[in-house]
Amino acid sequence: MNIYESDTTISQYLEFHYGDEYFGVPNYPSACVDNCLKFFNDHTSRRALDLGCSVGRATFEFAKHFAHVDGVDFSAQFIQHAITLQEEGCIRFTVKTEGDLVEHKEITLAALGYDSLKTRLHFTQGDACDLKPEYKDYNLIFCGNLIDRLYDPALFLKTIHQRLSPNGFLVLTSPYTWLEEFTEKDKWLGGRLQNGKNQTTLEGLKMCLTPRFTLQEVKDLPFVIRETQRKFQHCVAEMSVWQGTQ
Amino acid sequence: MNIYESDTTISQYLEFHYGDEYFGVPNYPSACVDNCLKFFNDHTSRRALDLGCSVGRATFEFAKHFAHVDGVDFSAQFIQHAITLQEEGCIRFTVKTEGDLVEHKEITLAALGYDSLKTRLHFTQGDACDLKPEYKDYNLIFCGNLIDRLYDPALFLKTIHQRLSPNGFLVLTSPYTWLEEFTEKDKWLGGRLQNGKNQTTLEGLKMCLTPRFTLQEVKDLPFVIRETQRKFQHCVAEMSVWQGTQ
Questions:
Q1: How far lies A152's CA from each of A120, A129, A240, in Å?
Q2: Which residues in chain B have Cβ-Cβ distances shorter than 8 Å to A231?
């Protein structure tokens, strides 16, 4: 296999999930998983769903602790790269340095310490707002940078409890970058006027998830996406941890 | 005056130049000026040109040390905001927090300590690649984040010495984000193949500026542009300091 993936978005996300750290910010998918794990012990760590898994780093990290992990993403291209890594054990890609110039990168399951995990996880393309019935009975559903990319986030939040096992956890992280390109404005959970007053996304999440969930924790988690060797997106996501009340 | 500027790009640049610092990164226009000043003493600090001055922060900072400073930008909108600050002493604007929600900001010459400087500087709209004859005899020409936004950067570099006084300085800073939207690819100074080998922008600068200039210093300078309260562009510009050889 000597093909280097050079699609800009795919390469940025491969580097984001599996590549170098910048500005001293720790790997984000791994940091998200670490923050989820404190709510679990071996007895409860059975099934996890990584919804909006992109190229799959958190899915692999969850598989260290959960007997079965499903990774689902709306993008067939992202999922295909996660599957390639799982099946072939290696992905090569290029990241931009300056203009059209690139550097070459390689990631391997062996170097990541994931070789023994690959039978525990299953990647599939799917729509978070219209999941197939078999996606259910999870102890944890993790949605990393998903909620502001859904076409109907309230519909998602008001039905996702059907997929959780009793007292299971729903963990949401997002920089709340609402864009009409992804979500019509009247479906934004926050960042707009509602009933004459400013509503934040966290307030919108509470309105959708109460009383089926109780909010266990809110914290900030930074992440960095490299665009070139001198240009980066540097964001601070908000993580909210919700436990099902039934 | 009770009007808040809410154009996204203008507001981002007003915040970038005059607003808060993020991730511990110092104010970029001020840091650029500080790095230029070590090459000057009172005797030589007569005339400076801030080319691509945007909303004008570095122009004001240079005016603390130079008897006359011209601030020139291609964008009439940017220049108009610099002039408004100079003439009215105050600009109000909004910055995005989340979605459509904003916070209100105000900058004043008084709070910036610039009140006494405003007679030393002159803002005008202009094209760096086609400057009017009166822009000349500068001891310093500073081009902050300009070179990768010109339609013909080589033409600019090969003629700019005509505007400098003997042994004057040309200072360039840029993250070298070459985009065909601004510069046709065959005019990129670097970030592409040239004569069968990868050429960096610094190499391209050397080719254009030698032997009329000698390179005095190259260093990295970070900057941060806020898009929302949780999303930022975090870049690392390269500053190169060139002294005219005649």
A1: 30, 7, 19
A2: 175, 177, 233, 235
Residue with tokens 């030698």: B210
A235 contact partners, CB below 8 Å, separation of at least 6: A175, A177, A222, A223, A224, A225, B230, B231, B232
From the list A99, A198, A233, the residue facing B231 with the nearest CB is A233
Which candidate, A66, A245, A42, places its Cα nearest to that of A142? A66
Domain boundaries, chain B: 3-244
Answer whether B244's CB lies under 8 Å from B169's CB: yes
Pairing mode, if any, of strands A192-194 and A68-73?
unpaired
pLDDT tens-digit profile of A87-124?
A: 999 999 999 999 999 999 999 999 999 999 989 999 99
Q: Residue B98 and residue A228: Cβ atoms within 8 Å?
A: no
Nearest alpha-carbon partner for A238 in A149, A151, A147:
A147
Length of chain B: 246
Give mean pLDDT, residues A70-87. 96
Digit-coded pLDDT (tens) for B175-202: 999 999 999 999 999 999 888 899 999 9
3-state secondary structure A11-70: HHHHHHHHCCCCCCCCCHHHHHHHHHHCCCCCCCCCEEEEECCCCCHHHHHHHCCCCEEE
The model carries a pTM of 0.95
The alpha carbon of residue B156 is apart from the nearest alpha carbon of chain A, in Å, by 19
| The CATH homologous superfamily of the domain defined by A3-244 | Vaccinia Virus protein VP39 (3.40.50.150)
> Residues B54-90: pLDDT tens digits?
999 999 999 999 999 999 999 999 999 999 999 999 9
Q: Is the preceding omega at residue B211 within 30 degrees of 0, hence cis?
A: yes
Q: C-alpha dihedral over B70, B75, B77, B83, to 10 degrees?
A: 0
Q: Which two tokens stand for residue B162?
A: 């005509």
Residues 1-60 of B with CB under 8 A from A: 23
> Which two three-digit tokens encode residue A66?
């959960």
Are B34 and B56 in contact, with CB atoms under 8 Å apart?
A: no
**Is the CB of A177 less than 8 angstroms away from the CB of B101?**
no
User: Which of A109, A16, A126, A125 has the alpha carbon at shortest distance from A63?
Assistant: A109
Across the interface, whether the CB atoms of B190 and A235 are under 8 A apart is answered no
Per-residue model confidence (pLDDT) at position B1: 41
The percent of residues in chain B predicted with pLDDT above 90, rounded, is: 93
Question: What kind and span of H or E run contains B232?
Answer: strand B231-244
Name the β-bridge partners of A68.
Answer: A47
The pLDDT value given to residue A1: 42
Strands B90-98 and A197-199: unpaired
Structure ipTM: 0.95
DSSP code for A210: T
